[in-house]
Amino acid sequence: MPPPAAVSRETAPKARSLPPGLLTKPDCRAARKLAKTMNFYEFVDDMSAEFGAAVSLSPKLFMFTASDLIKETLRNTQDFHKDALIDTTFKILVGEGLFTAEGRIYDQQERVIKSAFGKKYFGEFRRIIDDECERHLDEAFERSSRDGKPFDLCAQSVDLTMSIAARSFFGVGGETELARRFRKGLVFVQDWFAKLQAAHFAEPMLRHIEDSHLRLPILKSLQRSVFRGLSGSGEMVEAIAEWKAFASDNHAAVHATAADMRAGCAKIIELRRRDGDARGKNDVLTSLLRFQSDPENTWLTDEVVIDQVATFFVAGHETTSDLFVTLLWKHARGETPKEVVAELESASDMICEEQFLFQRYPAAYAYLSRVLLEHPPIVFTVRQAQRDVEAGGYAVPRGTTVILALNAAQDIDVAFGFGRRQCIGRVFALEEAVLGLRRLIRFELALEDPAQRPQMTQGLTIGYSRSPVPILARSKRTARG
Ligand code: HEM
């Protein structure tokens, strides 16, 4: 008997059509504007305002912007997998970790890896987070109050979240040097991934727009250059060429850096194994090493553990440092809401709290949700149709890449992904943010340049913490501090 999903596909009403967008109107204003400004985020808004929730960008590239449609796609893990592009990009660093794995490999990992983030470990995670917040936030703020010198919100957020990740995921404390080396490599590798990804999306879009304007097949190249001059798309052509050149010039260097980063992960595993005290600890890596001895888990080889370590670093560090940059920056602008301050000031012992902190402190959670929607660390994710499918009543041909514009959905339920593949670190990130906020409200911060905003660095995450310009602020202990 066929599985239920296949039955529902066969009996589903015939898909209406391909989504509107560049397939129906290749010379739309949004595309012209994108060619000139290269602002992808504005493009997403413009396209969804003009065409609605599902937009075609080329015959095999669509974009979904509405929450329902994004959820429908993410829920359908059978027909939509992660995009094949990750095989030659992301996987060189994180292998078949939880983020990239599909099918049987994912099925094997899911229960085991997720259980290392189980509720029973949160007491220990909270102690580490609070300790690191004290070490990084309190100390920096105190120093600035005392010396009257400013500090960089971005560097502070990176150091804080790096130390939290190193200790709670891998048990490495003082020797976060390895983690720091990993971070340095990450910036380069992510840049490379992001440029390849941008070219991968933009090139077929541009080709489709151009092809729909070329009337005389024999004079194609002449028409192409005239079109580029007239439409302004020449700038996009140059950008794509630059991204591709960067990708090919740095191909070998990126592979070498990724290999070096994975060697760093192997070293972290070795340190953990050699640590006699590890037995009673519950950092994520110790749990994974413990699970290795279970006869059911022969698949959990050292190589697979390296994949997970690299995955947690990549997925769990920069996202949270971007969130902290925003929280610190907003605090320095006096934007931490009064009800959050009141709620957290009267908070009892958070470490031993039974409930997850985001459930226990609703004002803080409401604020964090707003911040995550306004400044999402992950702006979009991508899926690829494994067969001809239907989504939101539209036909999605096999092989189509679908960009899921999480930020356009403006729904906290999708900010961390949705369904079976929702973020494994969601609760961890929220705990970290609530504990961080509680320390933050004891100080006042003031930006050196009140007009300065976090700068987006378009990588795999939004990359506020990678801002090339420091965001300087001074701090002062408040009466309640
Ligand atoms: C503010 C912080 C964070 C945000 C906004 C965020 C966002 C996301 C999103 C949107 C996804 C879904 C991607 C997709 O379906 O394609 C995801 C998945 C994932 N995240 Fe996070 N994340 C955050 C923090 C973390 C942390 C702290 C970890 C710690 C390990 C983590 C690990 C992962 C992993 C392993 C996945 C893949 C889960 C799976 O496929 O089963 N993330 N995250």
Give the SSE layout.
Elements: H1 4-11, H2 29-37, H3 40-51, E1 54-58, E2 61-64, H4 67-75, E3 80-82, H5 91-94, H6 103-115, H7 122-147, E4 151-152, H8 153-170, H9 177-211, H10 220-231, H11 234-249, H12 251-274, H13 284-292, H14 302-332, H15 338-345, H16 357-360, H17 362-374, E5 381-385, E6 389-391, E7 394-396, E8 401-404, H18 406-409, H19 412-415, H20 426-440, E9 443-447, E10 472-477
Parallel strand pairs: 2-8
Antiparallel strand pairs: 1-2, 3-5, 4-10, 5-8, 6-7, 9-10
The structure holds protoporphyrin IX containing FE (HEM).
Helix/strand/pairing category: alpha+beta
What CATH architecture do you see?
Answer: Orthogonal Bundle
Overall radius of gyration: 24 Å
- How would you name the CATH homologous superfamily? Cytochrome P450
Question: What's the total helix number?
Answer: 20
Instruction: Give, in order, the helices and strands.
Output: HHHEEHEHHHEHHHHHHHHHHEEEEHHHEE
* CATH domain fold name: Cytochrome p450
**Which cofactors or ions or other ligands sit in this model?**
protoporphyrin IX containing FE
Q: Report low-confidence residues grouped into runs of 5 or more.
A: 1-13
Tell me the distance between the termini.
66 Å
Q: Let me know the average pLDDT.
A: 87
> Rough shape?
globular
State the CATH class.
Answer: Mainly Alpha
Major sheet summary line: 5 strands, mixed
